[in-house]
Amino acid sequence: MDAERASLTGRPRVRLGIVIPTLDEAEHLPRLLRDLQELRIPKRIVVVDGGSVDGTPALAGAGGARVISAPAGRGGQLQAGVEFLRTPWLLLLHADSRVTPEVCRALEEWLFRADPRQVGYFRFRIEEAGLRWRLLEQGQRLRERAFGLVFGDQGLVVHRSRLSQVGGVPDLPVMEDVELVRRLRRLGPVVAIPAPLATSARRYRREGPVAVLRNTLLLGLHHLGVPAARLSRWYPREPRPQGTRPGERCLLVFARAPVQGRVKTRLAAGIGEEAALEVYRALGRRVVDQVREGPWRTRILLDTPGEEALVAAWLDGGGVEFGPQAEGDLGERMSRAMEWAWRSGAGPVCLIGTDAPDVDQPLVEEAFTALEEGADVVFGPAEDGGYYLVGLRAPAPGLFRGTPWSTDRVLSISLDRCREAQLEVILLRTLMDVDTEEDLLATGLLLRPGRG
Hints:
Elements: E1 16-22, H1 29-36, E2 43-49, H2 56-62, E3 66-69, H3 74-84, E4 89-92, E5 97-98, H4 101-113, E6 119-126, H5 131-147, E7 156-159, H6 160-165, H7 176-185, E8 190-199, H8 202-207, H9 210-223, H10 228-231, E9 248-255, H11 265-271, H12 273-291, E10 297-302, H13 308-315, E11 321-324, H14 330-343, E12 346-352, H15 361-372, E13 377-381, E14 387-392, H16 410-420, E15 425-427, H17 437-443
Parallel strand pairs: 1-2, 1-4, 2-3, 6-8, 9-10, 9-12, 10-11, 13-15
Antiparallel strand pairs: 4-7, 5-8, 6-7, 12-14, 13-14
Helix pairs in contact: 11-12
């Protein structure tokens, strides 16, 4: 460890990489990132996001973490973070953990004395008061002593060399934490760091007491060699957002907050920023009013977090809900928005913008009907070579990846990809987007403005 020595205090100068996998963790992640700022040792934090649509990546960046993306799956996300970092020591954490000052002190002391052959974990603790939670904690302590079981929500501190010896974090659908600890134990000691790492009670509240019995059974089957893919069928999926019905149509609307200078910049070059803002407000309100009462769930997704109140006042929140767009280019944001809809139980999903004033309820109904009758993809062609609507019956991997957005080749490239993937495509009628002064004059929008 000579290369890691030399600090002002004479203690080893440990460099720690912290890996946090996330999927829609906007509620818990900011607290954890604030906690980690109390660590006094050199550290790097990477958040590996698996496709959040609730603003998690933006919150991670604001909290001082580096953010990378990886396919959803805790094992694969953790390994992606390990490979991204170059630090000798690694701390693998769940996003709903709490790192108290006691944990910080204990971790610092442990690392200053640790042998790279050692692996550390924290005591299990539920972040709530009550006898029920204390009994759960006691049950985990008994499993640790009897069977050496350690779970991911207890954190894991491991040297990179030791992790490499076991092939990294297993990319399993479930039990990746149990399997990783089992492999590490074969090479050396896995020891408790004397501090409790608190974790949210949300999973235990959601699943109830029967989850303890189920998990115990599945752990036994895992140790008997039953593949993790088979065991994953017995784990419940994440709960659907309130109000979602299985198979329900979902209409996603991409929008920006009506802020002068940030909207309709090409149009503003011809008519000025103030006039362009008024056109944007009229256009967005018109489109939303024309689709909000259709037989589908309507969700407006904003490109900037924290502006829901401004947009709700502009569009009137009746009959719609609001959420954030993911990070990335337009294609990545579209993909993740649709993935969120399917995770929440939706059936066919359509996505529109607010640039085409003639998008209305009958047109969207036509798109959904085509998908329900067997079409794989529906496009609403725009006169500029793009499209004002895209609908999918099921995920179509790679459809939006690498598309040259804002060019006249968007639709043609998308159609080529559909042909290559043997996807059945339906085209709606061609409409005009309002992007320039010429488009505005052609649509006559100012003669037929929407409400608001």
